[in-house]
Write a structure and sequence with these properties.
By secondary structure, this protein is α+β, with helices and mostly antiparallel strands. The protein contains ten helices and eleven strands. The protein has helices at 68-79, 102-117, 123-134, 140-143, 178-187, 197-202, 220-226, 229-243, 265-277, 290-295, and strands at 5-22, 28-48, 52-56, 85-91, 146-151, 155-158, 166-170, 248-251, 258-262, 282-288, 301-302. Helix 1 crosses helix 3 (123-134) and helix 2 (102-117) packs across helix 3 (123-134). The structure holds cytidine-5'-monophosphate.
Length: 303
């Protein structure tokens, strides 16, 4: 039997997110800019004779069949008609309910890892359909880097310009349910028409500071309604990040994590210290480009 495989499962932030309307399937039509960051969970895949078993060190992560990583393994096992099973051990670092795509990333990492263990040769393109059935954010994690997400967010196009920046991530410790935030959006949804700040953004130099002012997150108001305790914190977090020179200070996805983008490590560390001094839980990480994300496959090692 093949030996165990360890893979990294990276988090993402949404640099911008526009809600365009409600779709017939009940989901929302989106236009979003995804970005992988270096913060990651570690996943170990150990082949076993039968059955799918999940272990995780985080109390909020289910280890039964509702875990998205378990569902990913089961979906691929059926699709490829594999008789054997796998044990999935997840070491969590990505905050749960933070809008950082932890669960979706875990699912994509399991698909990519099992594709290797079971020698299926499907790759990101061959896994795309299974990924989108698991969740709207899962296909993005087959590619990583800086990418445009359309439709439910599951139609993903890597950008020619990949963003390189330092990221200060703030976890307010108030997990928020994505489904509930989207449900709240409907009430206040005003049609965006064809206006697209993201289009203007991608047509400019990504490294240019001014372009970031164009980006918005249409889920923020709904997230703040869903978690009222977040509102005061959000103001403080944004205030500190901008004062310390962040090019962009925004909520990621449906929240509750906020992040700031910085050109240099020193400014990022200063911002992190300033947030910590205010009693906020912050950490410094970096963007992971498409190339770096692909290259991280080399670090996936058998044990
Ligand atoms: O696809 P996923 O299960 O990650 O989505 C979580 C929830 O977020 C969905 O059940 C849906 O309510 C909402 N959602 C949405 N429109 C999207 C993506 C997610 O309404 N484009």
């Amino acid at each position: 039997m093949t030996r165990a495989l360890r893979v990294r499962s990276y988090a993402k932030v949404n640099l911008g997110l526009e809600v365009l309307g409600v779709r017939e399937d009940g989901y929302h039509e989106l236009r979003t800019l995804f970005q992988t960051i270096d913060l990651h969970d570690d996943i170990t895949l150990r082949p076993r004779k039968a059955g799918i078993v999940v272990r995780c060190d985080h109390p909020l992560v289910p280890t039964d069949a509702t875990n998205l990583a378990a569902q990913a393994a089961e979906a691929l096992r059926r699709y490829a008609r594999i008789a054997s099973g796998v044990e999935i051990t997840i070491r969590k670092r990505i905050p749960v309910g933070g809008g950082l795509g932890g669960g979706s990333s875990n699912a994509a990492a399991v698909l990519l890892g099992l594709d290797r263990i079971w020698r299926l040769g499907l790759g990101p393109a061959g896994l795309h359909l299974l990924a989108r059935r698991l969740g709207a954010d899962v296909p993005f994690f087959l590619l990583g880097g800086t990418a445009l997400g359309l439709a439910r967010g599951d139609e993903v196009y890597p950008l020619h310009q990949q963003l390189r920046a330092w990221v200060v991530l703030v976890d307010p410790g108030l997990p928020v349910s994505t489904a509930r935030v989207f449900a709240r959006v409907d009430a206040g949804l005003t049609p965006r028409g064809n206006s697209s700040s993201i289009f203007y953004f991608v047509s400019r130099e990504l490294q240019g500071a001014r372009a970031f002012r164009l980006l918005v997150n249409d889920l923020e108001e709904a997230a703040l309604e869903e978690a009222p305790a977040l509102r005061g914190q959000a103001r403080r977090i944004r205030g500190v990040l901008l004062k310390e020179g962040a090019r962009l200070a925004a909520l990621s996805g449906s929240g509750s994590s906020y992040f700031g983008l910085f050109d240099g490590a020193r400014a990022a560390r200063r911002a992190c210290a300033a947030l910590a001094a205010e009693g906020l839980q912050a950490q410094v990480t970096r963007t992971v480009t498409l190339e770096q994300y692909r290259g991280s496959g080399a670090r996936r090692r058998a044990r």
